[in-house]
Amino acid sequence: MNQASHNFDYDAVVIGGGSGGFAAARTLTDEGAKTAVIEGGGQLGGLCILRGCMPTKALLYAAEVYHLMKHCGTWGLQCNDPGFQFREVIKRKDQLIKEFANYRAEQLENGKFDLIRETARFLDPHTLELSDGRQLTSAHFVISTGSVVSPPPIKALESVGYITSDEALCMEQPPNSMIVLGGGPIALEFAQFFSRLDVAVHLIQRNRQVLKTMDSDLTTELVNSLKDEGMHVYTGAEILTASTTEHEKKIQIRHQGNTLTIRAESILMALGRSPNTGSLNLKATGVKTIRNRIETDTSMRTATPHIFAAGDCTGPHEIVHIAIQQGEIAAANILNPEKSAAIDYRLLSSIVFTDPQLAMVGMTEKQAKDAGIPILTASYPFNDHGKSMIMDTHHGIVKLIAHRETGEILGGGVTGPLGGELIHEIIVAMHHRTTVQQFAAIPHYHPTLSEIWTYPAEELADQVTASDA
Fold first, then answer.
1. Which CATH number does 156-271 carry?
2. Model confidence at 271: pLDDT above 70
3. Is the predicted pLDDT of residue 467 greater than 90, yes or no?
4. What is the pLDDT of residue 6?
């Protein structure tokens, strides 16, 4: 490819320097395409590094250590008067993020492609106008502009005042009490972080269950654990209005037929994020969107054939490793259009880094039933498993979903200790299209957390074998 020298300034321009954009740019330049990355953010690194995955996990781990300190008597240990310095917790998080961001900045600034620190908007399908007034053209584009915090669900919240996950990451001191609006991963992770640092937390979720796309038997285990730690959780709650006084903020909800007023010092609005595409002037390109989300096919190609998209701005899953895959696939199809690489979500996995962690891969039970696939399911609790009993785990299960006739593993889920690590055993098994019969025959060391998978696997293997007979 060398169209840039004939018709355009570049072979490909990537808009956005986060995980998906960097993956696309790296793939393009490795194959010799003349490439530019346009990044208009104040700091290089992308959402995951700066305000998402990495800072939140640093905070959650600090809260977990503090939680263990407060409960060390469970194991006959003494830890007199455990405490924390919130500023030091934030400071360590900031130091780690600075290291991660500096490394990404070095990758973006290494000269393999042009890095342009401006914002951009389309003038036509091949032309961008930069915020400094310059214009540039490209044969292809990869849009990877990420997402922004979604607006509040009721207008009254704007006058009452709230913080988002962005502000929560850089607070100087925690409030005494907090209302968390939302029931997705962001809401749950922040709710537990603050709850474990002695903040009285009330979590309000509109849907009947938290993590509404996941199987309810897994989410129930998580909610029960959060409640045991003292968090107030309201699911199936309708927010009616919000108000404020000099000393507190109030949210009025309808919950289980009753009208309740929840009071707290602070409100964290964690109702998810929306595609960051509003300023791109996509109407000048022919690219189609649904509620600002860019529509693509499995090759990550938009309705305008030379424009691709990757990451949160296109979805349908706002997950870093998916964004990276999408960016690489978009680049591969720019480089080799005749081969048409495609994204495959069969091994889609999701992890919520609460404690216990909740993780899933593949199909949920509901998805399989809706698709008319004959399935078998089996689960096993952590509170009856040797290693997790040693760890004093009271909540959690592992669950396997298998094809009723072949025994192939179609999905798996876990709510439990180190669930985000344990799920990878099922990801590997599904990658190789392993059956429950084959999986049950794999030796697992005792006592380990991972051997818990053998119990549902053996149960399902017996059922598949019996049906064959």
1. 3.50.50.60
2. yes
3. no
4. 67
| Domain positions in the chain | 3-44+109-149+274-335, 156-271, 349-468
DSSP 342: -
Q: What is the side-by-side strand order in the sheet with 409-416? A: 349-352, 357-362, 409-416, 397-403, 375-381
Rounded CA separation 435/468 (Å): 14
Q: Please, which residues bridge with residue 289 across strands?
A: 294
Half-sphere exposure of 187 (CA within 13 A, CB side): 29
Residue the block writes with tokens 């979590």: 203
Sort strands 375-381 and 397-403 into parallel, antiparallel or unpaired. antiparallel
Domain 3-44+109-149+274-335: which CATH number of 3.90.170.10, 3.50.50.60, 3.10.580.10, 3.30.479.30: 3.50.50.60
For residue 2, pLDDT beyond 70: no
314 contacts 9 by C-beta, under 8 angstroms: no
Query: So what's the pLDDT on residue 392?
Result: 94
Cβ neighbour number for residue 365 with a 10 Å cutoff: 19
d(CA 23, CA 270): 28
pTM over 0.90: yes
Q: Which two tokens stand for residue 249?
A: 């903020």
Burial of 390 (0-12, 13-18, 19+ CB in 10 A): exposed
Q: What are phi and psi of 56, to 5 degrees?
A: -65, -40
How many whole angstroms separate alpha carbon 201 and alpha carbon 30? Answer: 48
The average pLDDT across 255-284 equals 95
Q: In this structure, what token pair is assigned to residue 209?
A: 């269950």
Quick one: pLDDT at residue 264?
97
Asked whether the beta carbons of 185 and 211 are under 8 A apart, the reply is yes
CA distance 168 to 158: 17
> Residue 304: what are its φ and ψ, rounded to 5°?
-100, 110
Q: Three-state DSSP class for 254?
A: strand
Whether residue 4 has pLDDT greater than 60: no
Instruction: State the average pLDDT over residues 207-220.
Output: 95
Q: Do domains 156-271 and 349-468 have the same CATH topology?
A: no
User: Helix, strand or coil for residue 202?
Assistant: strand
Tokens of 286: 């022919």
Backbone φ, ψ for residue 123 (5° rounding): -100, -35
Give CA–CA dist 397/222, Å, rounded. 10
Burial class (CB in 10 A: 0-12, 13-18, 19+), 206: middle
pLDDT per residue over 291-322, tens digit each? 999 999 999 999 999 999 999 999 888 889 99
Q: Which fold has domain 349-468?
A: Enolase-like; domain 1 (3.30.390)
Q: Rounded CA gap, 351 and 412, in Å? A: 12
Q: Which residues pair with 179 in a beta bridge?
A: 202, 267
